[in-house]
Amino acid sequence: MGREEHQEAAQGAVRVGVLTISDTRTQDTDTSGQYLMQQLQVDGHVVVEYRIVKDDALEIRSALSAMMKTAQVILSSGGTGITGRDVTIPVVESLLTKPMPGFGELFRMLSYQQVKGAAMLSRAVGGLARNTLIFALPGSQNAAQTAWEGLLRDELSHLVFEMTRQPQPLSGSSVTLPSGSGPLHVLGGFVEETEGAADVLEVEPPKV
């Protein structure tokens, strides 16, 4: 199937969790979170959960893990920069089983058109965490709008279609290598080529 056929097959509502990460925002001042929820609902998607948590690694991981039980996609905003309190990215990366580097690359490309070199300050990241797609965005409403309009709006259903059309490997499941393939080992939840490894490997999820 080509891209157009995939998108046509991928029509339908997506279950989305919205997570705002901030030490200061409330529901009344969370313009990014409110923007994302409004746009999701306009496009017919279902917001299954909305939370605001502090810039704290344990709180962020706990919220993401809880949302992963019901959400097909999680959109987080905040904590993607380089200040001392910006801890979102290492938490998200620790959960990812299939990173999607293109998301961050394209987001920074779009941001560069707006804020020039300041776009390098964003460590926005996306990828698959078992059976949930996570996209970590900067905290500003402008950044949320850039990501939504430029990347996510037209691809959200397609992304979920790609994620679900084949079973995803379970954490801790075995990886059986084809006969005659080179020796491999598992590093951080991924398989790499090395020497002296067995043909069946236990894949463990990345840990914080």
Describe this structure in words.
The N and C termini lie far apart (37 Å). The radius of gyration is 18 Å and the shape is globular. It is α/β, with parallel strands linked by helices. Helix 1 crosses helix 7 and helix 5 packs across helix 6. The chain is built from 7 helices and 10 strands. The chain is 36% helix and 23% strand. The C terminus is likely disordered. The strands form 3 sheets. The chain has a 6-stranded mixed beta sheet with strand order 2-1-3-6-5-4, sandwiched between helices. Strands 7-10 form a two-stranded antiparallel ribbon.
Number of strands: 10
- In terms of DSSP E residues, the strand content is 15-25%
Mean pLDDT: 85
How would you write the strand order of the largest sheet?
2-1-3-6-5-4
- Unreliable stretches (pLDDT < 50, length at least 5) are 183-208
How far do the termini sit from each other?
37 Å
Q: What is the radius of gyration?
A: 18 Å
Order of helices and strands: HEHEHEHEHEEHHEEEE
Percent of residues in helices comes to 25-40%
Form type: globular
